[in-house]
Every structure is written in C-alpha cells, then in structure tokens.
Amino acid sequence: MPPAQTGGSTEEQAPGGKPKRGRKRDDVALPALGLLGTLRWAWTQLTSMRTALFLLLLLAVAAVPGSLFPQRPANPAAVTQYIEDNPGSGPWLDRFQLFDVYSSAWFSAIYLLLFISLIGCVVPRAKVHWKALRSKPPRTPKKLSRLQEYGTLVVPADSGLTAAEAAKDAAAVLRKRGYRVEARDLDTDRPSVGAERGFAKETGNLVFHVSLIGVLASVAVGGLVGYNGQRVVVEGDTFVNTLVGYDTFSPGTNFSESQLAPYSITLDDFDVTFDRQPGTGKVQPLDFTASVTVQEDPNDEPRAETIKVNEPLTIGGSRVYLVGNGYAPVVTVRDGEGNVSFQGPVVGVPTDGVYTSLMVIKAPDAKPDQLGFVGFFLPTAMVDGDGVSFSGDPDPANPQLNLNSYYGDLGLDTGVPGNVFVLDTDDLTPLNNRELDAGGIVLAMNQIHDLPDGKGSISFDGLLRYAALDVHYDPAKGFVLFFAVLSLAGLSASLFLSRRRVWVRTGTNEDGRIMVEYGLLARGEDPRLEAEAEAIRGLLENKWMADGSASTREAGPDNLADASVAGSTGRTEETGKDE
User: Fold this and answer.
1) Which of 40, 188, 430, 513 could form a disulfide with 509 if both were Cys (CB 3.0 to 4.6 A apart)?
2) Taking a C-beta distance cutoff of 8 angstroms, is the pair 457, 451 a contact?
3) Sign of the CA dihedral running 257, 263, 269, 271
4) Tens digit of pLDDT for each residue in 261-287?
5) Nearest Cα to Cα of residue 356 among 305, 394, 306
6) How confident is the model at residue 37 (pLDDT cuts 50, 70, 90)?
7) HSE toward the beta carbon, residue 556, CA cutoff 13 A
8) 352 pLDDT exceeds 60?
C-alpha cells in the first residue's frame, strides 16, 4: 500500500489503513505547558526525593572550599595575606565569594533549595501516611497460599470452637503482637482477619526528614542571631562582654547588641602542666588550666571558675572556650624626652613547643619619633655552639627578650586597620639589629637598654601568662542537638523496623473441625518474616491446641472445606506455589 498523504506529511501504515504504532507523526504537536504548567513541573522536580538527595550532596561539596581557603569571618588577616600572596587568583576567588563560603549567595541558594525540597517531599508523604494510619488493613486475598509465608492449622472438633470464634481468637493474638487488626465476615462460613503493623517504619522515615529540616532551620536561626568573638586576656586583666571588649567579633545577620549579657571574666592565674621525658629532652603539655573570677551581672557576687581545653565555661547563655595561651612580657618604653610612651604586657605568639614567641611592640606616642620593636621571647634562653640563642624549655627558667628597634612613622595614624602582631619596617629607620654597630637588644628580666642617638629606652619588667578565649553564642544549639538525636531515632526506625501484613481465614469442615490458613506478606525485604510466621503459628497452636492432640497430615491449602490436615507450613516462592 502506498504511503497515506495527510496534510502534506507521510507516514507508514499497517494493513487496514491504520498508522503503525511507535511512528512519530509530523502533524501532531505536544501542547505547550504555559507558565502555570512550567511552574508546576519545576515544583514537581524540586520536591522529588532524588532532587533532595542531590541537593544534600551538593551542599556537602559546596562546603569543601570553606576548609581549603581561609574564611574572612574567622580570620580576615589570613584572607588579606592570601590575596596579597596570590595576586592572580586571589581577587577572582574573592569575586566568587570563596573566602565567605558559608554566607555566599550560591551556598545560601543551595541551602534554601534543600530546605524547600525537603518540605515539599515531607508534606505530601505525611498526608499519605496519615490516611494509611486511619485506613483499615487491606482486604483478605482469595489465595493466601501465594503469599511469601503460608501455613495451615486444624483445630479438633471437640474444641467447641466455631469459625467466627477462631477468627476472633486469631485477631486477639495478632493484636497482642502489635498488629492493627480487623475481623471480617464473622457472620459467614469463611470469616477472616486482616492485620498490619510496621507503620513506625514510615513514621521513622518521616521523622528523619522532618528532623533534617529542623536541623537546617536551627542552624539558620543560630547563624542569624548568634555570634562568635575572641579575646586575649592577660593574667590580672578583666574581659567585659561588650562589643569593644572583643579583639575580633563575628555577629550574625540579625544580631543586636542587646543580646550581649553583662558578664565579666577576670583571669586570675594560668597554669600549664608539662610532661618531661628524662634522657630525651622532649616536653609535652599535659594540662592547661585558667583560673578565673566571673560575674553574671555587675550586681552579682563574684565566683571562682576554671576553664580547660574541652571544658568550656557556660555564662550568660554563651560558651567560653580556651583555645590558646602563651607568655606576655611586661615592658616599659621611654621616648627621647624621657616620658613613658608604652608600658604593660605584650602578647607573644608561640611558634614551637617550647614557646619561642614572636614579639612586636609599638609605641606611637613616643616623641620626637615613634618607636617600634620586633623580635622574639625565649622562656628559657640558651646559646648553642654557633652563638645562636634558643629556648630549651617552655617554663620560664631564664626569660629573655631579643629585639630589633626602629624609629619613624608606624603608619597608625592613617585610619587603616592593621595587624597588631605585624610591624611594617619598610619605611622605618633601624636603630638596633645585628648588622649595625649598636647590635641587637638582649634583655633579661629587670634589665633596661638605652636606644642609640638618645631615642629612648626599653626595659623588661616582668612576665605574665595569657589565655586566648573564644566566646560562642548560639541560642539554637539545643534545638540542633534535639533534632539530631531525633533524626538518628527516626533513621533507626526506618532501617530496622519492617512493614508486615498478616491474614488469617477460618472455616468449618463437615466433620466439625476448624480449618485455619494464614499468610504473611512484607513490604520490601524482610529476612525476619519467616521467623514471624513461625512465632504466629506457635501462638495460635498454644491458643487452640495446648494439649497437642492434633495429628499432622497433608491437605490442599486453598480449599478449607476439603482440608483435613492438623497443620502445615511453607514458604511460597515467586512461582506462587507453596511447598
């Protein structure tokens, strides 16, 4: 037959003049979705479980750059240094917000889409599950022998039972095992029982997903109203919980200064316990203890507390962690006019296990020229064979300051923020260092050194310890813990519980015996279904045939009226035939 002509298009036809199936017709066009249809399709795709899992994986991948690159909220100085050291890639990384990963637009978009996707997945499933909880167990199949687990029982005629009573007994047995039970057709000659349990499996699944939403929401709330702050406190100093009291402060988006509780922390003493291995000279820290005095409110009585590593202080709704420590030599700097331009402890930055510490001292009030010092502090100063000083022990057995001095404009009057632990010496004139005739400055405890050209002097007056504290406030952390535990409970329920259905049908034989057949079906893989069938069989036998008077012979499973067995059981394979 020649091809049929339809509107200028041709298509192959089957015998009888009808087009063959599977052939694309050129004159048939799919209707356009339109705006509403497109939005509905997009919502369907977004709220699918596959999309939720993909977004969860994508969120984990998106968080990786936060560990690879320094983050501006945690360490802005490190970000600035990274950009300076990488002038080619640094600015581009900054444009893509890789130094602000967790507050970036793309990370927030993934976070928000995951939040919406989980809600869109959970709500429809919760509605379906609620209807399933209120519905009756499924109707009894006509052929129970086709189920995964199948068995029969015969109750002797002298038991005095009827088929309806046997069905009620089976319902009571199943109800005690936690099944939701419905007895049916009790007024007929073939009454049956339908039972179902394991709804906690789906409930656990829903609880798990709702808990994930709770965790995401709690983390978001904590990020909005919480804050993190760091402060270095020297022995004898007091930290007051105000904005100006922090060295660095990272507030949440909706943070308000009124959230700061008016507490104070005074560092009374800082103690470090070291483990020294005889013969090897190795020293390992064992314990760090900060003894502090705290006041929840200016009108409250002070109380003594201790802060240790992994043992934070809880005060004013905040957690105060001990994250670092070191030495703070007390120095006095006098300028060329003999006036004190700087006096107090200077925080050193430890560089090794024996607390060799970098030192930077700035005296911007010195006259006629500003003074700056750069060097290192040695707790136990020793000299090697080459005449190089080093620290032999972390305890201050022989404390010593080794400094270079400079004068000039320190660049502190420009209004540009700088790092207190860095001194830019490019535009400064050196006064003391090893390459000059004046040499470097070496100060032991209670020693003073006069600077060249009458520029002033510096003295080493004492030695204190300091503690670096990290203050963390997150009002939602309790909810995060709650939802995390709840999600584990829900996940355990969804993994280890099984959804099962049981049906029992009874009937009366011509000789008065009660013929019983039962079948079990699992939704999904259930390796314990066979054991459940044996348990139910044992309970039914104990209920009806405690005396063990029944005999065992074979009978057809599907016709109770013709059955003549005392009992049989079997596991049906996929072919639908029982053993």
Assistant:
1) 513
2) yes
3) negative
4) 999 999 999 999 988 877 676 888 889
5) 394
6) confident
7) 7
8) yes
For residue 236, what pLDDT band results from cuts at 50, 70 and 90? very high
Which residue pairs from 550-553 have beta carbons closer than 8 angstroms and sit at least 24 positions apart in sequence?
A: 550/153, 550/154, 550/155, 550/156
The span from the CA of 455 to the CA of 459, in Å, is 14
* DSSP secondary structure, 186-230, as one string: TTSSS-EEEEEE-HHHHHHHHHHHHHHHHHHHHHHHHHHH-EEEE
DSSP structural state of residue 64: T
Q: Which residue has the tokens 């356009």?
A: 32
Could you write out the DSSP letters of every residue in 138-194?
Answer: PPPPS-GGGSSEEEEEEE-GGG---HHHHHHHHHHHHHHTT-EEEEE-TTSSS-EEE
Q: pLDDT value at position 479?
A: 92
pLDDT, position 574: 39
- Interhelix angle 49-62/105-134, rounded to 10 degrees, is 150
Query: At which residue do the structure tokens 């329920």 appear?
Result: 493
CB 522 within 8 A of CB 499: yes
Position 578 scores a pLDDT of: 38
> Which DSSP category does 513 fall into?
P
Count of alpha carbons within 13 angstroms of residue 163, beta-carbon side: 24
Distance CA(437)–CA(55), nearest Å, equals 66
Rounded CA-CA distance 541/166 in Å is: 11
Q: What is the distance between the alpha carbons of residues 502 and 518, in angstroms, rounded to a whole number?
A: 7
264 close to 256: Cβ distance less than 8 angstroms: no
The SS3 assignment for 429 reads strand
Question: Residue 212's CB: how many other CB atoms inside 10 A?
Answer: 22
For residue 75, the cross-strand partners are: none
The continuous run of DSSP H or E covering 92 comes out as helix 90-95
Residue pointed to by tokens 């922090």: 246
- pLDDT score, position 550: 43
Nearest 5°: CA angle at 339, between 338 and 342?
125
342: buried, middle or exposed (CB in 10 Å: 19+, 13-18, 0-12)?
buried
pLDDT digits (tens, 9 = 90+) for 95-116: 999 998 888 889 989 988 988 8
How far, in Å, CA of 492 to CA of 284, rounded?
42
C-alpha closest to that of 193 among 211, 217, 168: 168
Q: What is the DSSP letter of 311?
A: B
What is the three-class DSSP state of 566?
coil
- Sheet strands (E) in 316-397: 318-334, 340-345, 349-350, 357-363, 371-378, 381-383, 389-391
- What are 109's two structure tokens? 């978009």
Average model confidence (pLDDT) across the chain: 85
Whole-prediction pTM: 0.67
Nearest-10 Cα torsion for 251, 257, 261, 262: 130
- Lowest mean pLDDT: which of 150-154, 228-232, 242-246, 541-545? 541-545
Q: Is the pLDDT of residue 17 over 60?
A: no
The DSSP code for 19 is B
Q: How many Å separate Cα 246 from the centre of its chain?
A: 27
